[in-house]
Amino acid sequence: MKKPLSILMVLFIISLLSGIWTSVFAAAPIECKEPGSCAIIKPGETIKLGVAGPMTGEYAMYGTDNAESSKIAVDALEPFNGFSFELLAEDTQGAPESAVAVASKWAMDPTFVAVIGHTLSGETAAAIPIYEKAKIPMLSPSATGAQLTSGNSVFNRVVFTDKIQGQSSALYILDHLKMTKVAILHDGMDYGKGIADIVRDTLLSKGVEPVSYESLTPGEADYSAVLTSIASKKPEIIYYGGYTAELAVIANQLSQVGMEGIPIFSDDGAFGVEFIEKAGKNAEGVYGTSSIPPTSAEKDAFDAKYLETYGRAAGSKAGYCWFAFDSANVLASVIRNTAILGDDGNLYIPREAMVKGVRSVSGYKGITGEITCDENGECNASGPTFYIVKDGKWTLPE
């Protein structure tokens, strides 16, 4: 039988533990007294940023492009108070369940600070609640779903919204192309259906009712049935909300259903060289939207670095690479303004301050223009640029 501890010994142990606990608290800044209230980076560890999106599968061009551009930015960042930045890249294949797994993993890492992304709207919507609970800010270069900035404090984006894109596209069809017999087709996913609905609603607000409103199943190789249904409505133009793979199938099958020469108008999700490669001559005359920034010394330097690093032109895969580069740099800027070096040599980054700091970004000069976030996390209110495929290239329409 063990001899019970004396009262003096118990008091001594309590005093000792109290001293240790007090010293731990003394080393941390006041903002970090509560467990989980700060990211804590110890000497020798790195400040972690994450980029998440599809890097394999049908939509890999978007996630890969964002990851590669973010890496250019993060690799060029100078250490802060002796702490280097590190980029973590995770493949979600664009699936919401994979995005949740990635977000959960990062939320458990005390050295993880912020997210460049996610990439697609559907996966982003699934991951937001996890980052909201963990107070980890997001700054997406490409997730444009109109609903993403509603009901949370952590999601922000530097790309224009689907609402602006959809409205601008509908008005372009009506005012510039002078077409009113519009068939609308979408892939049923958050992004594609969301933007198609905005196009439809904008047309209706102008007194123009679409001649057809249809959906398709992503990933199939034959859409002749739905295209035959659309052909019976005799549209002047087809608006498609969705991504590259399905748009290529649609373009390749128009002539099979008697709609050869009927133009297609699509979104920034389908913009890029991959569509032209898949559709070939059938890509000619297809309209698309993008947000390629204007020429500047900074953009030229990034473009040169991208070409040198990856052996292909910036924007050749997707149109978000410049936004990913800016997103990484904006987050690093907020970290530098928020982080506190503790007396113990640890770097403390208050999570609540990070969330508020990203949402309060104002006047940041990036290669995509001035980045200023409003109270909802919309950091770029500029609309898309319209393009048309001519002679095998995306060009500005006349």
TrEMBL record:
Leucine-binding protein domain sequence ranges: 46-377
Signal peptide stretch: 1-26
Repeat in keyword set: no
Domain of life of the organism encoding this protein: Bacteria
Keyword Metal-binding applies: no
CDD domains in the record: PBP1_ABC_LIVBP-like
Record keywords: Signal
Family stated for the protein in its record: Belongs to the leucine-binding protein family.
Protein name: ABC-type branched-chain amino acid transport system, periplasmic component
